[in-house]
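JOB MANIFEST
job_type = single_chain_structure
chain_count = 1
residues = 179
[input]
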Amino acid sequence: LFGTSGDPSVFPRIGSAYAGRSGSWDALMGFGYASAPLAEQFPWGRETVLDSVGTVALGGGYSFGGLRIDAVLPFHPFAEDQAGSFGATGDMRLGVMVPAFGAKGYRPALAIQGNLWAPTGDETRYLGSLGPKAGIAALVQQDFGPVGLVAMLGAQAGFPEVERNLSADIGPLLGLGLS
């Protein structure tokens, strides 16, 4: 994960419970890899739908009036399924984060984040949705000196989609990371 901030005194705030000073901005590039991230379970055994996916996520955020807006677009420069190797984009996420309260002593910071996913991904390769999705999550952050621990818990919902033996409409949003 690489990032920069318009405020040199802090790490990038994308994914954190802090909005930052009005007029500050953040940019980030994150990398990820998943082996067999999507599979179907049949009575005769497990069948892999996506064998592997590599992701590069590009994001940016801007703080104003106690809020932070951000956008993240994932690119999958390499992925592999039963038909072979390919590249694709994922669904773009637009978010608004509202801090509820900051950290004080042993009490962590808390923020609420609303998200909207635009269907920019490749749904034929299971890396995108047929329609938009919306979600809400709570972000809890505890800092330990210059490093912080962030946890996210929420849910997302979209139009029901059924493909093969898979269905998607409502699901959890879970995350754990360092800031």
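[summary]
The first strand starts at residue 2 and ends at 5.
Strands lie at 2-5, 25-42, 45-64, 67-81, 84-89, 92-101, 109-118, 133-144, 147-163, 166-178.
exit_status = 0
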